[in-house]
Amino acid sequence: MKQTKQYVWYASYGSNINNDRFLCYIKGGKPNGSSKIEEGCRDRSLPIKESIHILKHPLYFAKNSGRWNNQGVAFIGLNQEPTCVSYSKKYLITTEQFMDIVKQENDGIEFELNLQSIQERNSYVFNEHSWYGNILYLGSDNDYPIYTFTAPWDINEVEWNKPSHSYLSTIIKGLKKDYSNTDVFDYFLTKPGIKENYQADELFKLIEED
Fold first, then answer.
1. Which residues contact 116 (CB under 8 A, 6 or more apart)?
2. What are the structural domains of the chain?
């Protein structure tokens, strides 16, 4: 008897906001601006739905990613802040695909997750040494649970770092499908990792070019 697929929302807040980049995690391939070829999911079916989503967790940029010119990449803080607005895009994908995406974001490590139990505790660190080894439950939409992943540490426990032009450009291209240039500029100008490292004219020029 064929097993019925189970679906979840994956809420992206970094480069996966860009649909073309995200689909490299589904179908495999090398995203523009990245140095790594992604393996893809076992099930390469496209998401059955996608929509914009607002996170109440603060966005920041930190670490040095070999994928992205050895510069900063996006994370979100562990705690919700009522006035916080972090842009996100969520994709309705199978539970298996979500697990495969988590695996790819964590350099292919093996792990076991019980997503139902994560709903009861809101977060679960399955690998304390991995940048994206922490699964967060963000509620539900149309009876499908919403998950994302971030670091085990919090926003003030790590040094913020400038994201590369290619990485930030990837996110900008995704955001500009739903937001104006001014919206994107105002949004990024306040984000830790960007506000300390980008001049306003440098950021605006990058947004205008994409």
1. none
2. 7-209 (3.10.490.10)
